[in-house]
UniProtKB/TrEMBL annotation:
Domain Pectate lyase: 1-133
InterPro entries: Pec_lyase (IPR002022), Pectin_lyas_fold (IPR012334), Pectin_lyase_fold/virulence (IPR011050), PEL (IPR045032)
Domain of life: Eukaryota
Stated name of the protein: Pectate lyase domain-containing protein
Record has Nucleus as a keyword: no
Swiss-Prot/TrEMBL keywords: Lyase
Gene Ontology molecular-function annotations: pectate lyase activity
Pfam families from the UniProt entry: Pectate_lyase_4
The keyword Lyase is assigned to this record: yes
Length: 158
């Protein structure tokens, strides 16, 4: 099933599984493919395909936690994923997200962007194509850390 337009917003939801859906072509300000806020818990996004939204493909903010994103395909997009929106929002420190076996194809940034002190497990077995360079950016009011991922057998980008 393909969802176009405004995307999907989960607000104060618990125990939700989103599986085998396509999200494409959302237009307008603050329109994300999947927006999880506020205080949603125990969400599993599995085997979904997301591309071409005006804002992000997946945003997880405002004290939402215990989110798993697995086997999803992200493509043809700029701002892929946001975890925690504002470093001054201390409630976002409870956020826990697992990203596992996802495919990032032709996405530019936010793989994910983590903007506060959260726990994020990134599975480096995820596949990345057409990203140059692949970087994971963690934002905090005091810290900016960029980590480049170089797949095994690839030449060092330096």
């Amino acid at each position: 099933m393909k969802l176009t337009g405004k995307g999907l917003r989960l607000k104060e939801c618990e125990h939700v599984i989103i599986c085998n859906l396509e999200f494409e072509g959302g237009r307008g300000p603050d329109v994300d493919g999947i927006q999880i806020k506020p205080k949603s818990k125990h969400i599993w996004i599995d085997r979904c395909s997301l591309c071409d939204y005006d804002d992000g493909l997946i945003d997880i903010t405002r004290e939402s936690t215990d989110i798993t994103i697995s086997r999803c395909h992200f493509s043809k997009h700029d701002k892929t994923m946001l975890i925690g929106a504002d470093p001054s929002h201390t409630g976002d420190r409870c956020i826990r997200v697992t990203i596992r076996h996802c495919f990032f194809d032709g996405t530019r940034q936010r793989h994910p962007r983590v903007s506060t002190l959260v726990t994020a497990l990134l599975d480096l077995d995820s596949l990345f194509e057409k990203l140059s360079p692949i970087d994971f950016v963690f934002y905090n009011s005091n810290i900016l850390c960029i980590m480049q991922l170089v797949p095994d057998g690839s030449p060092d980008p330096e």
